[in-house]
Amino acid sequence: MMGRLKLTPKEAKTLVMDDVDAAEGRPEWAIMGKVLAPNPLSIETIKAVLRPAWGNPKGMMVRSMGPNLFLAELESEADRDRIMKGGPWMVGKNAILMKEFDPRIDPDDVVFDSLLVWARIHKLPYTLMNTERGTSVAGMIGKVEFLEVDEMGRAWGRYLRARVHVDIAEPLMRCVAVGSSASKTTVYYEVKYEKLPMYCFSCGLIGHSSIACPTPASRDEEGKLPWNSDMLCVPDQWKKEQRSSSQGSKSGQGSSTQPTGGETKNPEVSSPVKPRKQRARKASRMSREIAGNEKSGRTTGTKRKQKVYVPKTPTILAIENGPSSFALMSGQEGQELGAGEWPAGAVASGETHSDDSNKKQRNSVSTSTLRSADPAEAELQPHPTQ
C-alpha cells in the first residue's frame, strides 16, 4: 500500500541503521503466544492462568501485543525450552499457540498455524513401532517433534506415542492408513489425542465448538457427530478411576480374586461415601430418639423409676357431739364423708393401729387442726396448712 503513494522528499528520506543496534534491548528469552478463543480475553486473565501453569518462573513478565496476543519474557533459556516443549497449554478450554519471539518480525505478521500435541496410534504391528517407520507413520498426522521409544529405538505397548505439530487449518486426523506393497492391502489405524483443547465435533477444527460451527454435520444412528470426543480424546486417568470406583460402589462387588485354596471369592468393595451416610443416618436417628425421650420425660439407656404416691396431708379425724356425729377430712382432694360414715382403715383418736406409720400420723395431729362439724363454725376456723 505504501508503495503506491506519492512520497514527499521528507518521506522518501531513508534512515540507515545496523542490525546489531536493532538487537539491543530486545528480550533474550521470550515467547510470542496467541489464545485461540472466539472472544477477546484480558491480559490479566491470560497472566493469571499462565503463571501457575508454567510453574511461576522467576522474572516472568507478560505483556499484551493485541487482541488475544501476548509476549512472555523469561530470564533463562531453560524455562523457555521447557515451556515450548510442554503443553498443550490452554486458557480454560482455549488452546494457546506459541512461537519463539523474533524481534525483527512485526507481531501482526507472526503466523500461528500449528499446535503441539501428544498423539497415540493404536494397534500398530511391532514391525512399525520403531524410530524409522514410526516417524513415517506419525508424520502423516503432522511434523514429528518427538517419538517415545527406548534406548534401542523401539516402542512397546498398545500404541505408538508421538509429539506432533497439528495444522489448525485442517481437521484432526482420526486414523492413518498404511498399505503393504507385498499383500496389496491397506490397514487403517486409530488415532487418539491427549489433552485436546476445544475443537469442533462436526468439522474437526480446533478453535470453535460444534454449536458455533458454520458447517454442522449430521449425526449417526447413535446420535454422535463425525469427530465425537470418545473417538478422538484419550480420557484422563483420574476420570477412569472415578468412573470405575463409582461403578464398583453401585454394583457392591469387586473383581474376583483367586486365593491359595483355589476358591474364587468376590470381596466386598467398601465405598468411602457409604459409611459416612450410614453414620449420618445413625446420628440423626439418635438425635430424634433423644429429643423424643426428653419430651416424654424418659431417659435413654437407664431404667425408668416407678412413681410412688405420697399423700399431701395426713388424714384428720374430728369427732364432735359423740361418736354418732363426726367429720373426716382427708388429704385426697374431693373426699367428704357424712355423719356416721367411717372410711376403710380409718381409726378415731385414742385407738391404736398396728401400722407404725399410722401411729406417727395420729401423734402428729394437733388439737388446733380439729375442725367443727358445724359448717358455719368450721368456716370461721383457720384452715390447716402443710
Write up this protein.
The protein is α+β, with helices and mostly antiparallel strands and 386 residues long. The chain contains nine helices and twelve strands. The longest helix has 24 residues, at 273-296. The chain is extended.
Quick overview of this protein structure:
The protein is α+β, with helices and mostly antiparallel strands. The chain has helices at residues 19-22, 43-53, 77-85, 131-138, 229-232, 237-251, 273-296, 356-363, 375-380; strands spanning 29-35, 61-66, 69-74, 90-91, 94-100, 114-122, 143-147, 159-167, 175-180, 185-194, 316-319, 326-329. 23% of the residues lie in helices and 19% in strands.
Largest sheet: 5 strands, antiparallel
Which value, in Å, is the CA radius of gyration?
Answer: 49 Å
* Stretches with pLDDT under 50, minimum 5 residues: 251-273, 315-340, 345-354, 364-369
Percent of residues in beta strands: 15-25%
Note the run of SSEs as H and E.
HEHEEHEEEHEEEEHHHEEHH
